[in-house]
Hints:
By secondary structure, this protein is α+β, with helices and mostly antiparallel strands. The strands form two sheets. Strands 6-5-4-7 form a four-stranded mixed β-sheet. The protein has a three-stranded antiparallel β-sheet with strand order 1-3-2. It has twelve helices and seven strands.
Amino acid sequence: MLEDIIISRVRVKILTLFLTSPGRIAYVREIVREAQEEINAIRRELAHLEKIGMVRKEPRANRIYYTFRKEYPLYFELLGIVAKTTGLGGDLLKNRAKLGKLKFVMFSGTFARGENPKPNSVDLLVVGSVVLPELTQLVRVEESKRKREINYTVMSIEEFNFRRSRRDPFILSIIAGSRIMVIGDEEELVSS
Length: 192
């Protein structure tokens, strides 16, 4: 899906590499190896991304390291796009029909940024009529990739609306935090 708006295949791979692991620092050959693209194509894209201010390069010893600049004006928008279209977000969208009738699916901001979760925090909220075995399988695959447990909550639309209308502290804590909507309207999610 990211390929739908960004024409360069190599640029998509570089953005995905950096934005699925925010804060990551990588040198050119490492990027070439993970992106499985030609070194000259990677260098050309990195030079372009540096020129427009997306990445910063830093020479260390005999290598040049790159990192994505969080100060880039579209950083959080790009982070959201990558979270929605790759990994668990992409799997949820691809398998939407198998998962049931989903009203809302959202990631917490800390989950999308790859930060360590706070105690009792929810990484993924799914609201609707959900086929749990299908969802559990997708979550387990992502857990093995991330090498950490993903805290997720599944609710019916009725339960979510009831708890939101009663100002349930658990629901309010989810709604109050930063989030990336994968499915559904954010305004509808937060309105009571």
